Amino acid sequence: MTAVLQISGLGKTYKSGHVALSDVDLSINKGEIFALLGPNGAGKTTLISIVCGIVTASAGTVTVAGHDHARDYRAARTMIGLVPQELHTDAFETVLATVSFSRGLFGKPRDPGFIEQLLRDLSLWDKRNAKIMELSGGMKRRVMIAKALSHEPDILFLDEPTAGVDVELRRDMWQMVHGLRERGVTIILTTHYIEEAEEMADRVGVISKGRLILVEEKHALIKKLGRKTLTLNLAEPLVTVPGELADWKLALTGDGHELVYEFDSQAEATGVPSLLRRMSDIGIAFKDLHTKQSSLEDIFVGLVHETKGEAA
Amino acid sequence: MTANWRGVRAIYAFELARFGRTVWTSLALPVITTALYFVVFGSAIGGRMSEVGGVPYGAFIVPGLMMLTMFTESISNASFGIYMPKWTGTIYEMLSAPLSPLETVIAYVGAAATKSVIIGAIIFATAHLFVDVQVAHPLLMVGFMLLMAVTFCLFGFIIGIWAQSFEQLQVIPMLVIYPLTFLGGAFYSLDMLPAAWRTVTLFNPVVYLISGFRWTFFGKGDVGIEVSMAAVALFFALCLGVIFWVFRTGYRLKN
Questions:
Q1: In chain A, what is the greatest distance between 2 CA atoms, to the nearest angstrom?
Q2: CB of A306 within 8 Å of any CB in chain B?
Q3: What is the total count of domains within chain B?
Q4: How far is A231 from chain B (nearest CA, A)?
Q5: Is B244 a domain residue?
Q6: What's the whole-model pTM score?
Q7: Could you give the domains of chain A?
């Protein structure tokens, strides 16, 4: 895998003294979909803004396909498309004019055929002569994406692409992202929605309080940090967990109707068969049972909670 | 990599299209203003003034009137041009585009200066309806007009970057440039002032600019043409220097 974006030792301290990013190292592979997860104010947008040239870094370097993003900014920026979080648009411009403008701004020759196809792909072609102020929020979001893609970037940044977006557009967006990846475009997205990262990303990075606390291949992450829970619905409620079952550290929930056992699904001995045997030995019967694999969301909440605890 | 002229053209065309949307008010305004000034200064007052330094008063005020309008138009157009993307947030796209600071300035200032020169030309043409104006040094006059338009657009660009509200955007053109121009001999010769006031007036930088432009019309001004040229060059260099600093530091453009 070749890295298309290399970030080393990146830091940003604002004039107010607020440290938005500190010592971030990140390498993005060509053609991958990378999701940057983190709570509000974690530094996701600052990170993207530095790479795109909107915010100046206080420390560290960024190279885009070998081009230093400060010294060789033309080559670096030509490769990047950015869809910002906010809907910043020229209200009086038409869709076609604003998207064509973006292509020119990035130094690409006019190509009406390409722009037409782009607008068609984003269901904007019918609205091409509409002024942007006449469009709905979702349509404006599509315009922002069309602008970012107008100069055929190799790397696309999507900053909270589906915040406040309806189901249909979200589905379209996911489809579009997969389509772009097939054409070799590298995609870096930030999101609050864990399901989005789970659905789309190849790798996940978790950022909290300006630090990149984890970067991991998505499935490996879920496997590594994921825990499973076994819930047993008891035939008769219990008042306390019997002493004979103390080894399993069970939790009693649902007014004594449920026994919950948390275990590591990767471990050699999960402890499930022995638990069930012991229960039948001491005569505790259950009506039903189910297991649940922890989601990326559980992992994320756990991680962010941990770093918050450390900081406090 | 080579210069991004397509990017420059995109911004230039975008800005001209913005002017195009208000083309009738943009064009009618200088015509009406010129006509009003000629009615008031040219006919009502000018009738009693006959000549200033051998030049009929009606013709005498033409260069001053052109400069007055071009100064304010240049500043408001150029400052608005860069302030709007800051205000709407679309500046993110300029900042992330492969454009050098110089290219950005050429695009914005070039577009605003184009509009100023067009307005200056309209005033000049309109003035011909009222008075007979001969230009002694046509090439110098056009050169002076271009340089003034560019310089004041650079100044406007700086104001647009500095301004953080619409009020700040208006404050310099209305409270500083307009009075300085009015008191800078746009409609009178410094010879007409008492000696003490003449000295005070010489501290007004706009005097040198208007005097120089008038010189290209009539071959004489309140100060020598060399002094005017030096003043213009100084102001131009000063604006360029500030802009260079703005882009180096990212002042009010980047965090």
A1: 79
A2: no
A3: 1
A4: 51
A5: yes
A6: 0.83
A7: 3-223 (3.40.50.300), 227-293 (3.30.70)
